Amino acid sequence: MLDLKTDKNSIKVIKEVPSYFIKRDGVKFSFALYKLKLVLNAMDLSGKIQENVISGILNKLVGKDEVSAQEVATAFVDTLKELGLDDKAQAYIEYRKQDEEKWEEQTNPTERLARLQGKDPSLVHENANKDSKVFNTQRDLTAGTVGKTLGLKMMPEHVAKAHLRGDIHYHDLDYTPWSPMTNCCLIDFKEMLTHGFKIGNAEVESPHSIQTATAQMAQIIANVASSQYGGCSADRIDEVLAPFAMKNYHKHLKESEEFITDEDKIKAFAVKRTKKDIYDAMQALEYEINTLFSSQGQTPFTTLGFGLGTSWIEREIQKSILKIRIAGLGKEKRTAIFPKLVFTIKKGVNLKPEDPNYDIKELAVECATKRMYPDVLMYDKIKEITGSFKAPMGCRSFLQGWKDENGQEVNSGRMNLGVVTVNLPRIALKANGDKDLFWQIFDEEMQVAKSALVFKVKRVLDASPENAPILYQFGAFGKRLKPDGNVDELFKNGRATVSLGYIGLYEVGTSFYGPDWENNQEAHDFTLQIVKELNLRCKAWSKEYNYHFSVYSTPSESLTDRFCKLDTERFGKVKDITDKEYYTNSFHYDVRKHPSPFEKLTFEMDYPKYASGGFIHYCEYPNLRQNPKALEAVWDWAYDKIGYLGTNTPIDKCYKCGFQGEFKPTARGFECPKCGNHDPKTCDCVKRTCGYLGNPLQRPMVHGRHVEIASRAKNLMNGMAEDEQ
């Protein structure tokens, strides 16, 4: 045995290191020497002492090509003791013991349920769409809490522990892997409404009017939302519903012919009645969606995509959607949170004043200034980035262009199988300015993320069509499988996507280049290279497994808080990184700064090309009600530069004093700046929580997201005033 205590300077550094490290669950990784250094750095052991500890450990492992986690831990403790660092050895033993105790706690349903019963904010406010005060949500939270503990034990242990540490985030753990559910989808409404479907004991035939069609859509949405855990979207709803509105028109033509002889008057009567039918049907759909509760204890995350239809009926559907949203919900005219509206802008359709649907684009601009929605899709850019045009699944998840065995492009009826997000700021904090080390750590985290995503795919393959008939047997997923069919028919060959998410490029850039790096080309190129590397990994995994792995700019509604809290515990309050109390979403510009909309979007525009599985850009504006042309100018400028753009503008209302504008953030939430009102019964406070809107007074959000929203600065341009109310 080497006498490391008496002759520290004579230690021979062993260059030979094991090739592989075997984790506790048997998974093999490359042996990473940097991990020993990181642990020793955390123990405040550096310089020659650190070299001696590492040499001692490697001496004990010499000649072994593969070493287990226990072998390394034993060598670590023994070496520390031999060097006379008994206190450090004991601290390491205690750390490992605490790590195991934490694992036992997180996988113990009783412990987790106790936290829920104690109303732990990280549990009850994790999803701003869930009202934790009501019984059905409480039941879902209880089931989800148990599901998380069981799910952690089901997945590979190294993945579960990486999730608990905060190296990665295994999304929707309350539902999956305990249940083999899928994430979000583009429901194939055209197939279902044309051929009929079955819900429960009811055989539903194809509708004969637009009113019945939208009623059936609401039923489909409720059932789909209860059979998956992510958002559900209706793509090109104006075109899907037009044939059913045409049935109304023909019915009214026939009715009017009994009483009117003039052909022009007959048509005018039928058109007028049909327009009324369309408006009523779309209004009913809006109210239905906002009053639905899925089995998950929440309003279904629903997105309606529209804007490309040019027939008079398709135009009328588009106008009705926007007019109804502008009008608001109920007697107080509150802003509807759902469905999310996504309006498509396309050259030759509605972009320019000479286009046939330009008037509808103007209506969309008005709607966005008053209700924030619609967000806008730029047709040509979406096609360029994702390979074909389609609306997002949920708030931002995009399918990639895909053709079936007959060469037909297919979008509706496809889905996403789940998301795993990697904590990029943590990698940067570990690297501490060393780019070579950053890429070493990045490489290992990619291996963990890959294991997690592959497990997500394998788990959904355990589903049977009988588990979710609305999805697999009755058309929501496009094809209709038999009860004993193989669900993989709908997933393989790139038909479904599975997503590698990321968060915190701003914080990574800050770690290496300081907080004001946005105009530093080297910093921009470095952060862009990270997204390119994520993209390269996904391409390789897609080829290896025959499923489409895509890069996803994670919304991070609660993850912005979770990752930052965990990293604060580990690294302390690091200026402009963890001290903000939140991490910046994906590739977004630092929300605390004041670039113009054009500067912000120019900075962000390069990233989505490599993150085509999910992305969105936002701009923060002052009150735009009196200046809609300013918003239209941004939309027009952005058309050939970015694919997907959201509008954030103050639309809060106080029904006590009449204030309209932006509520003031406080420690307890948001309040009217005029009278201090914060009662959700007498005010309407609407904020962009992530991809969707939320009402933080009705349904509070996690602390980090609240701080992030409060930190958002306006992206001003000529003609805008920050204090405009």
From TrEMBL:
In terms of superkingdom, the source organism counts as Bacteria
Pfam families noted in UniProt: ATP-cone, NRDD
The answer to whether the entry has keyword Metal-binding is no
Q: Which GO terms describe its molecular function?
A: ATP binding; ribonucleoside-diphosphate reductase activity, thioredoxin disulfide as acceptor; ribonucleoside-triphosphate reductase (thioredoxin) activity
Instruction: Kindly indicate whether the keyword Transcription belongs to this entry.
Output: no
Looking at the record, the residues that make up the Glycine radical domain are 593-718
Residue ranges occupied by any ATP-cone domain in the UniProt entry:
19-103
Name of the protein described by the UniProt record: Anaerobic ribonucleoside-triphosphate reductase
Instruction: Point out residues bearing the modification Glycine radical.
Output: G691
**GO biological process annotations for this chain's record?**
2'-deoxyribonucleotide biosynthetic process; DNA replication
**What EC number(s) has UniProt assigned to this enzyme?**
1.17.4.2
A single GO cellular-component term on record: anaerobic ribonucleoside-triphosphate reductase complex
Q: Which UniProt keywords apply?
A: ATP-binding, Nucleotide-binding, Organic radical, Oxidoreductase
**Coiled-coil regions, chain positions:** none
Question: Which top EC class is given?
Answer: oxidoreductase
The record ties this protein, via CDD domains, to:
RNR_III
